[in-house]
Design brief:
Strand order of the largest sheet: 5-6-9-8-10-14
Largest sheet: 6 strands, mixed
CATH class: Alpha Beta
Number of strands: 15
Number of domains: 1
Structural class: alpha+beta
CATH architecture: 4-Layer Sandwich
Radius of gyration: 17 Å
Number of helices: 6
CATH topology: CNF1/YfiH-like putative cysteine hydrolases
Order of helices and strands: EEEHEEEEEEHHEEHEEHEHE
Length: about 260
């Protein structure tokens, strides 16, 4: 398989299941998976992903995604490795941690996956932003929550925006246009009698408006619909489509 060229700081790596995407600017263990890791078909897929990131399977946390902007914080383990309450069944679209023994993840099949990294505190987050989440400002909410929870400063955060449906393929209706309001119209263009939505630009702009440095926001510019051999896509394949994951492990804090 010939792998498409991602933009900027993104590069292909060889994971235990096959090709995986990483962003050089994020200096913490992380990965955007491909359909070679069959998350909906293989019982051992999530443990395999945890192993790729160097954490135990029971320390891989992902929320029940509901296309909103709620936040889950995974705390560090207590004394003597006492157990934590796993948030897998909790409803949220943003999950974060500062525990170096923990990985957090979201799953997607066209929606935008965002991985956040604070190089000073080591804190990380994974966020899921479809059109509803983007309209609700998931990127802004995650940035604010990183600050409120871990003391992260927006100008220090690094964010990688992984593969998702691109502006080339995302035709939407008037109800989606209306959900974004007047300010959000800048992320739409009209083509062949329909509205096309650019989720990449919308999330990038929201991050910068939330205080991130533009050089710290990285977009892979890989469309899930356009690469059927590599990515699962709900828009292309329907309800039976597989799922991709974006996962990241916290890194131990370094001094400023």
């Amino acid at each position: 398989m010939t792998l498409p060229q991602p933009s900027g700081e993104f590069e292909w790596a060889q994971a235990s299941w096959g090709p995986a995407l990483r962003c050089r600017a994020i200096r913490a263990p992380h990965v955007f998976t491909t359909r070679a890791l069959a998350l909906r078909q293989k019982e051992d897929a999530w443990p395999q992903l945890a192993g790729e990131l160097g954490v135990d399977a029971e320390h891989m946390f992902r929320p029940k995604q509901v296309h909103g902007d709620a936040v889950i914080v995974v705390p560090a383990a207590g004394p003597s490795g006492s157990s934590r309450t796993g948030p897998v069944d909790a409803c949220a679209d943003i999950i974060m941690t500062c525990d170096a023994d923990t990985a957090v993840a979201v799953q997607i099949a066209d929606c935008v996956p965002l991985l956040f990294f604070d190089p000073l505190t080591g804190a990380v987050a994974a966020a899921h932003a479809g059109w509803r989440g983007t309209a609700a400002g998931v990127a802004r909410t995650a940035t604010r929550a990183m600050g409120d929870t871990f003391g992260s400063r927006a100008e220090n955060l690094v964010v990688a925006i992984g593969p998702s449906i691109g502006p080339c393929c995302y035709q939407v209706g008037e109800e989606v246009l209306g959900a974004f309001g007047a300010d959000g119209r800048r992320w739409f263009y009209h083509l062949a009698g329909g509205w096309m939505l650019n989720l990449w630009s919308a999330n990038r702009d929201q991050l910068i408006e939330a205080g991130l440095q533009s050089d710290n926001v990285h977009v892979s510019e890989l469309c899930t619909v356009m690469h059927p051999d590599l990515f699962d896509s709900y828009r292309r394949d329907g309800a039976g489509s597989g799922r991709l994951a974006a996962a990241i492990t916290a890194r131990r804090a370094v001094s400023a």
